[in-house]
Amino acid sequence: AGSGGAVPSPPCLSRGIVPHRMTTASAREAEQQRRLGEGGEDVAGTNRRERARVFARMFAPGGPASGAGDRRVAGRPPARGSNVVVTVNRDDVGCARLRKAMYLLGTYYNLFVVVACSEEDGDAGTPSPSGPSGGEAAMRREIGKIRDELLGGGDGDRYGLTPDVVPRHRVVASTRPKGRVAFARQLGGTELVLDHDGEVAAELGRFGFRVLRYPVAENGGGGDGSSPLGRFLIP
């Protein structure tokens, strides 16, 4: 630019992604604190303690995720604002424990959620280049339902998971492990992946990704309606 030109603005994207510090999720705790007032609960302090418990489940050596064939990585959590990818089973998106855990992670990290759907659901996150066919339209409706259910927390919900915490476009769906591997690889700067599938963990591990393989009970969720991931992160 010439001497009289305007100074260019700094880039708003990092590897094609809005940095966490510039998202509404980073300001969510402060907004909740303003609603509660000075005499209300210390939102940031409470979240910090709750998040520390989640991190202990995820990263502490010898924790609940350890076991044979496990790709869990003990050590320090990724730095605040890092890109984190979490796989959630389609049947588990309504789990209250899971949504609370996603809130705690989403207000600390740039969170991306991949919903593992069945083959019958179709690959809801992959549009066809030829335009929306009847089957694809149904798939788009399904991913819309998934986003509505997962992100349907209201402002009055203390741990409400809303599009302010995880934007709707950061919730995608895939029917195959290979799709989840491709998503994590294509996403710039992924620091951590949480998935339950050994194939996903092994494949991403080959490319140097830090992967935490969380346990999944053979009988699915708990009797209280909680999901395997919800029970793992918040017992």
Mean pLDDT, to the nearest integer, reads 82
Overall form: globular
Span of the ends, CA to CA: 57 Å
Secondary structure category: alpha/beta
What's the helical proportion of residues? 25-40%
Along the chain, the helix and strand elements come as HHEHEHEHEHEH
Q: What strand line-up does the widest sheet have?
A: 3-2-1-4-5
Structure notes:
The chain is of the alpha/beta class and about 240 residues long. The protein is built from seven helices and five strands, in the order H-H-E-H-E-H-E-H-E-H-E-H. It has helices at about 30-35, 45-60, 95-105, 135-150, 175-185, 200-205, 230-235, and strands at about 85-90, 110-115, 170-175, 190-195, 210-215. A five-stranded parallel sheet has the order 3-2-1-4-5, with helices on both faces. Helix 6 links the parallel strand 4 and strand 5. Helix 5 (about 175-185) runs parallel beside helix 6. The longest helix is centred in the first third of the chain and has 17 residues, at about 45-60.
What labels would you give this structure?
alpha/beta; 5-stranded parallel beta sheet; single chain; 235 residues
Short description:
The protein has helices spanning 28-36, 43-59, 96-106, 134-150, 177-186, 198-206, 228-233, and strands at residues 83-89, 110-116, 171-174, 190-195, 211-213.
